[in-house]
Specification:
The protein has 693 residues and is an alpha+beta fold. Helices cover 39% and strands 17% of the residues. The strands form eight sheets. Strands 18, 19, 20, 21, 24 and 27 form a six-stranded antiparallel sheet that branches. Strand 13, helix 9 and strand 14 form a beta-alpha-beta unit. Helix 12 crosses helix 15, helix 14 packs antiparallel against helix 15 and helix 15 runs antiparallel to helix 17. It starts with a strand and ends with a strand.
Length: 693
């Protein structure tokens, strides 16, 4: 295998709040992928930073009576402490308020200016007459001009995903003071994203395979077809007072935080290149990773709520400023808890620190998240009861159980020395390694599938132990040799499971390596049984069952400790805390009974030529003939992912003649205030044609 050179980033957490379990979906996912790549022998650099600029930081520091620099220094300590607790191992974790980031931001800006892609315009901007300041987009709220959702921010709507100028908001108000803002003129600096060169580049780039299929579809909606010119120029400046970097040739004007935030990936990496050798013993070269003809790999892990910035603004800025663009953007969904959005009132808006203080073992959460992450943009649900059950069943009942059942016999009967192993018992484990199925799942970020296979192998190991009954062999005369083989085989299988789990459970894997007295496990040069006469150390409890009472204490702690934040518009992963659409007017049971809902199997799904939003679905609902339904879900689903899936449709809806054909029903899908559609699926066992009552 040829070693790869890889630079990996996660979205920058905003320095105006605590890390919570929603954030950790991203950082744990990225860390698992990075650890797997390093175990493969690749040169990988994982960098991140606190996103520190903007009005929210300035106002919060003012409220606390400290400087913005003091505030972000304190929050940096809190964030790095929490990441360390969850074993998220950055090669460098920096701050966007650094000399390196200033240099990178200015370099990109000046390159864009010199290419004629920066334009100065006098605009009308909202001004807060109470706070005596121009209001950034995120501090103006009002009614969305597109879908008319209430209390939306001034730059984009979290309900329909539309981007717009603050002056387009209906009935705007200041999110700082609540005052009705005044319109005043100000010179602003714009990146000409609407330029043909930018839009032509983005149409090609977003179709290049860099994005997941559902993300690429969404970008096409925003871009439109060639000649549409749907993208607006991007306002990249803000007026003083503002905490950030002053624009080089514009006194009193500052870079908008969303300009220097993604540049923070470059700034943090430049700090790693300049100031340290790195954790892998080599000092990376900045230009090798960022020059336009670079053969290195660059991966960004982000939440789907910031796709617009990372899949449009960021690559256009990079390409036009003379830098390389990302190899891949990996977007993930939001976290729900017990099937609902995280809630402060229910105690399910859980901070990382409260988890550490209450539960303690953070690898339990790493395992649970990994068991749910499949490499798509689907939301992930943390069901707290299922969390307890899965940890106790998989990690304790299956994995740890192997060592706890057999290690004592080796220590007591054979002076801690292993014997020969049963090659038949280990054949399936060897096959799993050599065929690379688990490794492929890790590479594709389908951790859920990897863990399903690992736990299947754990079942194989436990079945072997149950059939051989070492506890019975230990009591029978003349069975010492067989007992030695059985227990040595079981511990070899335990070693193999540990290798497979190590990207997810690095600390526990280290404890197992110490117990087995072996070198750190890697994905290279492996497949040898633990040798006969190899001495292991005394077995100590590696993990304990998760007490359900701790979950109750965790939610109680978060109900008591969390207070509504002031001056904290949602940023990054926190944007998922959107409001729900109000419940519609009450209907009678008779009204509902008129709707014939049926389970449907998707026999085929395909794109519709000339349709920007539609997929053509062929559905089996138990009738002699299939039904055709045109569904507006193209932005959310790749047709290949839908084939064979069960869903729900309205079967007695009057057929509708459309431009592309006759639609014979409606598939049901859920949507919230954030972008995204999610088709409904019945539980396992439901058959096509079953009526939903």
């Amino acid at each position: 295998m040829t070693p790869r050179k890889i630079l990996v980033t996660s979205a920058l957490p905003y320095a105006n709040g605590s890390i919570h379990l929603g954030h950790l979906v991203e950082y744990i996912q990225t860390d698992i992928w990075v650890r797997f790549q390093k175990m493969q022998g690749h040169e990988v650099h994982y960098v991140c930073a606190d996103d520190t600029h903007g009005t929210p930081i300035m106002l919060r520091a003012e409220t606390e009576g400290i400087t913005p620099e003091q505030l972000i220094a304190r929050v940096w300590q809190e964030h790095t402490r929490d990441f360390d607790a969850f074993h998220v191992e950055f090669d460098h974790y920096g701050s966007t308020n650094s000399d390196e980031n200033r240099f990178c931001a200015e370099t990109i800006y000046l390159a864009l200016r010199d290419k004629g892609l920066i334009e100065v315009r006098s605009i009308e901007q909202f001004y807060d007459p109470v706070k005596n300041m121009f209001l950034p987009d995120r501090f103006i709220k009002g009614e969305c001009p597109k879908c008319h959702a209430q209390d939306q921010y001034g730059d984009n709507c979290e309900a329909c995903g539309a981007a717009y100028a603050p002056i387009e908001l209906i009935n705007p108000y200041s999110a700082v003071s609540g005052a009705k803002p005044e319109m005043r003129h100000s010179d602003h600096y714009f990146f000409k994203l609407s330029a043909d060169t930018c839009q032509d580049f983005l149409r090609d780039w977003t179709r290049s395979g860099t994005l997941q299929a559902e993300a690429a579809n969404k970008m096409q909606e925003w871009l439109g077809t060639e000649g549409d010119n749907k993208l607006s120029d991007w306002d990249i400046s803000r007026d003083a007072p503002y905490f950030g970097f002053e624009i080089p040739d514009a006194p009193g004007k500052y870079f908008y935080v969303w300009l220097d935030a993604p540049v923070g990936y470059m700034g943090s990496f430049r700090q790693l290149c300049n100031n340290s050798i790195g954790k892998q013993g080599s000092q990376p070269d900045f230009n090798e990773y960022w020059q336009p003809d670079s053969t290195t790999e660059l991966y960004h892990f982000i939440g789907k709520d910031i796709l617009y910035f990372h899949a449009l603004f960021w690559p256009a800025m990079l390409e036009k400023a003379g830098f390389r663009t990302p190899t891949k953007l990996f977007a993930h969904g939001f976290l729900t808890v017990n099937g609902e959005k995280m809630s402060k009132s229910r105690g399910t808006f859980i901070t990382a620190r409260s988890y550490v203080d209450t539960i303690g073992n953070t690898e339990y959460l790493r395992y649970y998240y990994a068991a749910k992450i499949n490499g798509t943009m689907e939301d992930l649900d943390l069901n707290l009861d299922d969390f307890v059950a899965k940890v106790n069943s998989d990690l304790i009942g299956k994995y740890i159980n192997i060592a706890s059942r057999c290690a004592g016999f080796i220590a007591k009967n054979f002076d801690g020395k292993l014997g020969e192993t049963d090659s038949i018992a280990s054949a399936e484990f060897k096959s799993a390694y050599l065929e690379g199925g688990i490794a492929h799942c890790y590479e594709q970020r389908d951790f859920a599938r990897a863990l399903r296979e690992i736990m299947r192998l754990a079942d194989v190991a436990n079945q072997y132990i149950a059939e051989q009954k070492p506890w019975t062999l230990a009591k029978e005369a003349g069975q010492e040799t067989k007992l030695h083989i059985v227990c040595s085989t079981a511990l070899t299988l335990f070693r193999d499971l540990t290798l497979y789990l190590k990207p997810v459970l690095p600390v526990l894997a280290g404890q197992v390596e110490a117990f087995l007295n072996i070198a750190p496990l890697s994905w290279t040069g492996h497949w040898q049984a633990l040798p006969a006469a190899h001495t292991i150390n005394s077995y100590q409890h590696l993990a304990t069952r998760l007490d359900p009472k701790l979950i109750a204490a965790l939610t109680a702690a978060n109900v008591e400790s969390l207070k509504p934040a002031t001056h904290s518009p949602a940023r990054h992963a926190e944007a998922q805390q959107h409001t729900l659409t109000p419940i519609a007017e009450t209907i009678s049971l008779d009204d509902f009974s008129k709707i014939d809902l049926r389970v449907a199997k998707i026999i085929n799904a395909e794109h519709v030529a000339g349709a920007a939003k539609l997929l053509k679905l062929t559905l089996d609902i138990g009738e002699e003939n299939t039904r055709t339904v045109f569904a507006g879900i193209k932005s959310a689903y790749d047709p290949a992912q839908l084939k064979g899936r069960m869903t729900v449709m309205v079967a007695n809806l009057a057929p509708r003649q459309m431009k592309f054909g006759l639609s014979e029903g409606m598939v049901l899908a859920a949507s919230g205030e954030m972008p995204g559609l999610f088709i409904l699926s019945p539980d396992d066992g439901a058959q096509p044609g079953m009526r939903i009552k």
